[in-house]
Model the fold of this input.
Amino acid sequence: MGLGMDAAERSAFVEQGHTGILTTLRRDGCPVTLPVWFAPIDGVIYVASPSGAAKVKRLERDDRCWFMVERGNAWTELAAVGFAARGRTLAPGDEAARAAAALADRYAAFRPADESLPAAMRTHYADQVIIRIEPVDEPLSWDNSKARLTGT
Done:
């Protein structure tokens, strides 16, 4: 029995994930991996970011990236879906608005009230862009809970 997930399982797994892992590339090719909140819509991942963030600049320079969602603590719980992608910032418009609304809805219960943030932080997050992360290859996936363990 394989540990991979089929397309429906992968889609559900990503949808249920809370925090994604986005890897972008520095100028010298060194990967930079960061946790991100995300909204999956029709097979595409959307992430909001301050417009001046380094990840935005890295994607403008080199749009290659990797996105992954994972879960589990014990070995038998470990599972993940990851894929190579191209990332780009969206111009304001319908797609960006739809993604921003999906992100706001998805994480509403987890955000602090804007007025509770320090002024510098409110300023930092005021100018947001939406990043579109589109898969370019078949995803990798595994779910160790599918393993048939013996002697347990």
DSSP finds four helices and eight strands in the chain.
